[in-house]
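Holo prediction — NAP.
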Amino acid sequence: MLPWTLIIGVVAATVLVLVTLVRVHARHKLRRLLSSRRDQHVVLLGASSGVGEHLAYEYAMRGAHIVLAARRADRLERVKSHCLDLGAAAVLTVSTDATNVAALRNLRDESVNFFPDGHINAVVYCAGILNVCPFDVLLDAPGQENNEQATRIVDRMFNINALAPIHLARIFLPALRATADHIAATTDVRERGPVPVVAPSLTVISSVAGLLPAPSRALYCSSKAAMHGFFDSLRIEEQRRVANLTKAHDVRLDADVDRHLAYAPLPVQIRLVAPGTIGGTDLRQTAADASLWREGFPQVSNKAAMTPEFVAKEMFMQSEDVLVLPTWYWGAVAIRSVAPGLIDFMASKKYK
Ligand SMILES: NC(=O)c1ccc[n+]([C@@H]2O[C@H](COP(=O)([O-])OP(=O)(O)OC[C@H]3O[C@@H](n4cnc5c(N)ncnc54)[C@H](OP(=O)(O)O)[C@@H]3O)[C@@H](O)[C@H]2O)c1
């Protein structure tokens, strides 16, 4: 008799192959259309380095209007200058701390004023912060009452990775919906093309760590997992909102099928990007607990790391609601749902 683990392994591998084939097919179909997008008005938060910086270059090469935001104003100016060299139509930099709600509102208002006709097509949250030490370094010693440094680290991780993108969604979604309504009102659905090409989008970068556990990254994993819970749910709410609007249009316009088609409302596409390890970005140096790191703590090998250029290009050229990079991590997620011990063992070997 075959052992259960072998049967589970074969089933999981088959599912992985099928899912990969379907995804590759969908990807090729849309890739050409996505790469030819023009007239984009995009807001990039976390654009002073790493993936956000390179995403700015992808948009710049297509002649987009770009708002670059982050805290380091000097780095933003450098990215702006390169964007203009690459062909961006216009670039505005807005010094922004993502954890400050008033600053996020200011970013929205400055963006609306900056873009011709005030419409925003895409908002991408690229900001993020890592932790690199085992949770043990944050434990209160017996009798210790004021471990403020540990409190600050925990709060900072969740403020930047989890709370800020939720506030960002609160503040920018109405503006993105206004763009969707404008597109719906001024274009005929039969000439629009697929939703991911024409619909405005709100994209947040989480991490594979939001889907899979990693030792010494407990705060990072948990704060990134929160993004998945929130944005996956928000996507369903947004799709249901548009389905209800469509129904309302049916009532008013059912006598005129052509008009109904022409006015079909559009959802805002809510996207999550979950990359594995990326080399050559500032993420490790700026870890919330970098000052507590000691020799002997787990490290992850950077050998198989992706480049920020590659991740930015894939983000631009792919249209999935949840984009996992590299794609094979979906297999690890699937296997973990049936054999968690196997993936946890591999994670403990990866971070050693
Ligand atoms: N590197 C990896 O291995 C990896 C793997 C998976 C996922 N990710 C995720 O990918 C995203 C981009 O990371 P990266 O690797 O490109 O790192 P990075 O080079 O450190 O970029 C992070 C960006 O976030 C900005 N940022 C940080 N805190 C901010 C705040 N409070 N307000 C506004 N902006 C803030 C930084 O700009 P300022 O400092 O100028 O504000 C910077 O532009 C992050 O969400 C990260 O978690 C990275």
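READOUT: The longest strand covers residues 269-275.
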